[in-house]
Amino acid sequence: MSTLDRARCRIGAHPLAVDAALAAAVLACMVAGSFVDPHGPDGITWAVRTPDPLSLVLMALGAAALVLRRRAPMAVLAVTGAVSVVECVTGDPRAPVVMSAVVALYTVAATTDRPTTWRVGLLTMAVLTGTAMIAGPLPWYAQENLGIFAWTGMAAAAGDAVRSRRAFVHAIRERAERAERTREEEARRRVAEERLRIARDLHDVVAHHIALVNVQAGVAAHVMDKRPDQAKEALAHVRQASRSALDELRATVGLLRQSGDPEAPTEPAPGLDRLDELAGTFRNAGLHVEVARADQGTELPTAVGLAAYRVVQEALTNVQKHAGPRARAEVSVVRVGPNIEITVLDDGGGGTRTPGTGNGNGNGTGNGNGTGGGHGLLGMRERVTAVRGTLTTGPRYGGGWRVHAILPVAHRTEAARAARATETPGAPKASGG
What we know:
This protein is α+β, with helices and mostly antiparallel strands. The protein has helices at about 5-15, 15-35, 55-65, 75-90, 100-110, 115-135, 145-225, 230-255, 275-285, 300-320, 375-385, 410-420; strands at about 35, 45-50, 290-295, 330-335, 340-345, 390-395, 400-410. About 60% of the residues lie in helices and about 10% in strands. It is built from 12 helices and 7 strands. The chain is rod-shaped, with a radius of gyration of 43 Å. The strands form 2 sheets. Strands 3-4-5-7-6 form a 5-stranded mixed sheet, covered by helices on one side.
């Protein structure tokens, strides 16, 4: 903090003392001015004169009132204005008692609004100047009378300018503080979104691959003695699934690295182009999976493709874990207009699970995995909602489970960009699908 700022803080902490000092300074100026006669014996040079005792009393009263100028600015203006009127009528019209009224008018203008300043300022100028011109001993055109008009006008203008500047500075400071709060809130929101996204990725990777590892390890343990070849094959699948889990975890954790850390993996995010590979991992674990595609080779944006991949992955993981050992799953990917529809069905295979419900907005409840408290359906719903899609989950009539997701082929940002690019002047704007 600079010396000027510290001085301002000290002054602001003792306003009454500052006003008392100001009143003393104004009194000294008025008394000093009362001894000066601008019109000497020759009418040109200045001379020294003896002030009237009544004028000294009025000066003291006006200066004393200024001590309370911040607490009651209107009352102080009334008192100093009355003292000045009395001086103009009965005392020496050349005595500068009106200086106290000028300071009081400045205070009123600096602490009130502009309409009040105009009304009070005009009234003060009219009363003091009119009294001096009409009831005073000097001619109405005397420079002392014109000086009263000029000083009161300048006091009102100066006070209004100070008030406007204070309001401007306060508005700038408030806007800066609001912008700072907005930046902090935006940063917190982005951090929360990133945490949720990483949590979803970790859940999908761990739930999928660990479920496969668990199944294959169980198979290996079951056939180790009687069929060692099949046990070796199961252990190979365990090794492959664990390696895939480590690779995906490394890619996910790489997102948390700082700019100066070693380079993170650059493997692209999985999409529907790896759907057959994904289905193959479940087939190796003993789940019968059929894949049908009618998407005409549609290329999806990275975010949409990743959401589609994770929906299929999580749905098949739930089938593997909860639909029973003889379950059969069907995966279909169909292009329907501007959307791509993904459906994962299973026949239950004799297993039981906790029913979940869903709606067209992806706000279904239940987890669809038989635990009643997992994050699988929640993660699917968040991914689908993030790309402006819809998710419906629930039991099938006759047994089994159904997961149905509708995803837009173009992400909302790319769709808006494409709409702007195809827009022609004068044509109506296309609505995003």
